[in-house]
Each structure stands twice: as structure tokens, then as C-alpha cells.
Amino acid sequence: MTSASGAEPAQGTYPGGRGGPIEYGETSSAALTTAAFAGVMLIMVSVFQILQGIAAAAAGTVYVTGAEYVFQLDVSTWGWIHIVVGALALATGIGVLATQTWAYVLGIILAAVSCLTNFAFIPYYPIWSLVVIAFDVAVIWALSTLIANRR
Predict the structure, then answer these.
(1) Structural Rg of the chain based on CA atoms
(2) Model confidence over 5-41: pLDDT tens digits?
(3) Cα separation of 34 and 28, whole Å?
(4) For the chain, how are helix, strand and coil distributed in percent, rounded to 5?
(5) Which of 4, 8, 20, 41 gets the most CB atoms within 10 Å of its CB?
């Protein structure tokens, strides 16, 4: 690093003649907003998943099946699937709010798994499953944006 005059390197207290610590730039407010959105949405989706799973596992009569469907599992089995996915997504959402890189990647994976489980759950509760899928897509977008904008 040279001084402003361009002559000699600026001497400092750091090795290599640097005059101070390296600054990598501030985190933009847009990135923080996207991280908060992703974390809160992932937590919301996980709570929806857990509540949906509890309703399915506790009382099998809450959800009524309509037409025959390829993915036929017992409603209580679907309930436990939703509870497990929701619990994992809840922990990951907390990790996203704590700005953990592993949580960004795992959040995308869990949101995709949540999309698949809700797609398979459409015959039991179609409108709600589509709403949760839409929230999952928003989570995937937000987390992908965070990963793409990381330096």
C-alpha cells in the first residue's frame, strides 16, 4: 500500500506495512432487509408446517380426502412429516436471522422440501398447501438473493 503521494508504503502497526485493518465494506441495508425477510418468512413457514402437522397427527378427521391421489399416505404420517420439516426449518430460520451461511443453504433446501411435501399434501388441504408453497418460493428467492450478493 503506498501513501497518497505514491512514494513509499505507509508504515503502520500491522504486518506488511499496512496502516490499519482491512475494511471490507459495510453490509448494505438491502442485504440486511432481505436476510430479515428470509429469516422471518422461514420461521413463519415452519410454524405453519408444525401447526399443520399437529392438526393432521392429532385428529385424522381434520383433513378430508377428496379424489384418489398418487401420494397416498395416512394423514397422521403426513402430520409427522410436516412436524419434522417444520422443526428443522424453525432452527434454520433462527440461523438465518443470526446470519449464518450454513443456514442460507439449508434454508433453501428445506424450503424446497417443504414445497414438495405441501405439493403432495394438496389433496388433503389444497388452498393452504398452495399458500405455504408460495411462502416457500419467497423464502427460496430471498435466500438465493442473499447468497448471490455475498462477497
Answers:
(1) 23
(2) 555 555 555 455 555 444 444 556 776 788 888 899 9
(3) 10
(4) 65, 0, 30
(5) 41
